[in-house]
Amino acid sequence: MSEQAKILEDMQELIMAILKKGAATEEEGNKLDELENLMLQQKCYRSVDNENYECQGEEITSLLFNKNINQAIDKLIEYEITAEDFFGFAEYHYDEDDEAEIVAIFTDELIVNVNKMYKDKANT
Fold this sequence. Notes:
The protein is an all-alpha fold and 124 residues long. The chain is built from 7 helices and no strands.
């Protein structure tokens, strides 16, 4: 399990515990802030030299949105981001209410295809 996957798992567990209780303690709030800060240090959040994107994950998302899947796979490999970590980033980073058209591209079919293409290309 990658560091990013572990951070996301820890965040989900903490959020579920908070939801069950109905409120967060100060300690839980601090832990959530700490996890969010760690998440922002992951590879998908590294900045890019492109004024259209804030980070590498957004650049890859744009390629997928524009149906440039091979280029997106190349960027994943270039940036040393696994497909699993990229989709974890996408789930965490994009809000359905604010960016519904972006969220809509992340279909099960796309995820399966990108994972397969990534594995095939990364292992050659």
